[in-house]
Each structure stands twice: as C-alpha cells, then as structure tokens.
Amino acid sequence: MSIDVRPSEDPAKYLATDQLVWFGEVTDADADHLRLGLPADQRFVVDLPDGPDDLHSGIYGVRPMEMSLPGGAVVPIAGLTWVGVHPDARRRGVLAAMMSDHLTRARDAGTAVSALHASEAAIYGRFGYGSAVLTHQVSLGRGTTFTAPHLEDEVASLTTHLLDMAAPGVTERMRACQLAAAPDFPGTIIGLPDFFTLMAHETPEQLRDKEPRRILFARRDGQDVGFTGLRREHKWESARPSGTVVVGTFCGGPAARLALARRVVDLDLMGTTKLENVGVDDPILGWVGGPRGAGDLKTWDSTWVRLVDVEAAWPLRAFESDCDVVVEVQDRYAPWNAGRWRLTAASGTGAASRTDSPADVTLDVAALGAGYLGHGIGGLLRAGLVQEHRPGAYAELARAMRTTVAPEPSIGF
Ligand SMILES: CC(=O)SCCNC(=O)CCNC(=O)[C@H](O)C(C)(C)COP(=O)(O)OP(=O)(O)OC[C@H]1O[C@@H](n2cnc3c(N)ncnc32)[C@H](O)[C@@H]1OP(=O)(O)O
To answer: What is the DSSP code string of 69-107?
Structure first.
C-alpha cells in the first residue's frame, strides 16, 4: 500500500496529533507558540484510509536551521522534528513513508543535510542517519575547582550576567553568540530567531514547579562572548540548602566557558551542578582533572546526521587528511545516493563524483552521516558494519573524515 504524505492544512489537528503522541495537554493560548520555529509549509501529515477521524495517522515537521561543519562553513540544514505516529497507526510503515517524503522534499529544496535528535536510539539508523555527536552529562559539586592557568589573564577580563531568557533582547544576543562561535565549534546547530522565541517562552505545562530558564552571559568590554542556560531546583537536606542547578549547552571560546563554569558551580543555595550537554573534547573535563574529577559522568548520543545528497554534502566540509576512495553507497530511502562514488579529499577540499571503478569500500549512507562532523567512524569496520575490498581503504576514508577535536553537541530541537 502506498502511503500519501502531504502538507498540513489544519494547524489545530496537527498539534492535537503531536499532543496525543507525546501525552501533552496544551491550552489554546499556547498553541500558536508551540508551533513557532516550524514554518506552516514545513508541517506534513499522513491520513491512513482507516485512520482516526479527529487526528492524523502521522505527522512530521522540519525546522530550517544552520549547522557548522569541519573547516568552519555554516550551512543550511533540515532540522527534522515533531515526528509522531498515532498509536493506532504504528508499525504500518507511516514513519517509513514520511522519511522518504522528507528526504525527497529536502533534496528538491537543495538541502544537502538533515539532522535530528532521536527520541530512541534504534529508530533512525535504518533511515540513513548516523550518530554523529556524543555528549556527556556531568555532575559537579559546589565549588568544584577548574585548573587552567594559561587562561587566567583572559578570564580576569570577563564578567558574567544572569538574565531571564524571556527578557527583551536576550534571545537575539544568544543567537548572535552562537553564530560567532559556530565556525570554531563544528557541529553547532543554530535555529532561526523564531526557534529562540520558542525556547524563551515556557508553557505552564513545561514548567510545572520549575523556575523559568535563565541565561548566563559572559561579557568582555560590554560585548557578549558566550552564554549558557540554567535552571535551579530547590532542595533542603538535613536543614542545609542542597539544590541542583541544571545547566545547558555552553557557547563561546575557552575563556568564556571557564568563566561560566566557575559561576554555575558557585550559586547560592545550590549543592550540585549538572552540566547537561558537554562535548567529549570540551575543555571543562580537562580543567577538573578528567572524568573522575567530573563525577557521575554519563554519555548519550546528541546530533544524528543524514546526508540527503552525498554529492552536494561531501565538498561542503573541510578535511584534515587526504583520501581517494571508491565507495559503494547503500541507500534505501534516498536512492539517488546509491551506487559508486569516488570520494576524495586533497589539501582540505573534498569532491564526490560518480565512477564505474570497482568499489574499495561498501557502506550504508548512515556511516557517512556518522562521520560527517568529524566523529571517529574507524570502529565500524571492526564491528562488521562496513565492507572493505581494498586493504587500508576504509582507514583512509575514516582518517580523512575524522577531526582532531570531536564535534560540538547541539541544543535539542
Ligand atoms: C526527530 C524526532 O522527532 S524524534 C521523535 C520520534 N517520535 C516518537 O518517538 C514518538 C512515539 N513513537 C512514534 O510515534 C512511532 O512509534 C515512531 C515514529 C517511532 C515509529 O513510527 P511507525 O509508523 O510505527 O514506524 P514504521 O511502521 O514506519 O516502521 C519502520 C521501521 O522502523 C522500525 N521501528 C519503528 N519504530 C521503532 C522503534 N521505536 N524502535 C526500533 N525500531 C522501530 C519498524 O519496526 C520498521 O522496521 P522494518 O522496516 O524492519 O519493518
């Protein structure tokens, strides 16, 4: 049975379907707000012939976003989000139909890369997405010491300022900081201004008993040089204040990160600081003496990347070493990528061209997505997830794609 995917015409039904899938309850007052950052022409639906009358069988949406790549280019991407299938329609191929639709539309629009945050790890690999960025969650005790003598002079010139995220001008300042830092931190994903407005306004349902998110800026000479988001949670234990401050993604260079990190581990009435989104090569881990200094360290997948168009995506990023490899790409959901490509990198510049030469390597397109931001993919060969036909060819490819520093985790979208 072929499943028709079409643009949404009924914003209320679209939102109500999302709310059923995500067991939410939204007031009319918040409805328009929740759809912010999701342009009306980027909402798509499926109605199965025997599906529910009042809701859609499936929905998905695309946020137009930008992402920084190895080498510093900042390129448009499709931020896949709002994926949901009605409980009565699940496991009948609705998601598979929506994924084909998404990839076709993205390619037609000239968008070479799609990215997402996955609700469950097992869903998106089959659709050609690779886990491209890892992130640590780190717990730090009150007053944790950060040792970075080489940065002290620079940090001394910085001040920190705590503001409500919803205060005028804050989201514009956050976005400007992200755009400025992105080239130095490949993997950074930046939303349109509407997306920041969405994050700044938290509905009563999202907040429950939590304080609204606040933004801590680092400034030098009156100019923003970085920020992070935080939220404090009260707790009293044995008559002592022992709250937890939950801290989001850090943005800015090393000195800004250090100034912000010192501030968030020294907030009154707090006992623990939970850093929710720390890249695996983030200097913070080194400043506390390594993983044991961080305490209770957990690792998750952050951004998943999908090359919508291998030929267009490959040359967008820079490469740290050379390669010349013929790759047989398997791609069930974006058949225009399937077949043999000569992938090269020389003096930092990549090129992808069709070839009839015998393949050196056979892999699923998801492997190219996993390595696209610089995350190491050498282990896929050992795991039996790629096949090598010319000895050393896969190592050559994996080395060229890998970057010295691991990619930056992104803010959830
Ligand atoms: C980017 C984001 O928005 S992330 C949010 C994703 N949404 C959610 O998690 C909301 C709750 N879950 C759902 O709405 C649905 O269960 C979905 C979207 C995950 C799956 O939708 P379905 O229409 O049931 O998937 P569909 O029938 O197309 O399945 C396609 C394939 O994926 C597999 N699959 C689907 N969901 C899962 C899962 N959660 N874990 C593992 N495999 C899965 C199916 O088994 C099927 O495999 P096959 O091709 O080997 O037969």
So the answer is: -TTS-EEEEEEEEEEEE-GGGTTSSHHHHHHHHHHHHHH
- Residue 389 in any domain: the answer is yes
Could you identify the atom of ligand 1 that is nearest to the CA of residue 94? 23
Cα of 63 from ligand 1 centre, angstroms: 20
* Active-site annotation holds for 124: yes
Prediction pTM value: 0.96
Ligand 1 nearest-atom number relative to CA 83: 3
Alpha helices, H only, 201-249 = 204-207
pLDDT, residue 297, reads: 92
| DSSP β-ladder status, 74-85 and 113-116 | parallel
Report the relative pairing of strands 214-220 and 223-233 from DSSP bridges. Answer: antiparallel
CA angle 132, 134, 135 (to 5 degrees): 145
199 and 50 co-located in one domain = no
**Catalytic pick among 14, 44, 124, 196:** 124
In the annotation, is 413 catalytic? yes
Structural domains counted in the chain: 3
Tell me which of 120-124, 156-160, 185-189, 201-205 is least confident.
201-205
> Strands 298-301 and 387-388: what pairing?
unpaired
* φ, ψ at 410 (rounded to 5°): -110, 160
Same domain, 331 and 294: no
243-258 pLDDT, tens per residue? 999 999 999 999 999 9
Ligand 1 pocket, mutate which of 123, 131, 332, 333 (most atoms under 8 A from CB): 123
Question: Which residues form the pocket of ligand 1, taking CB atoms under 6 Å from any ligand atom?
Answer: 21, 80-85, 90-96, 116, 118-120, 122-123, 126
Single residue among 111, 143, 172 that ends a domain in this structure: 111
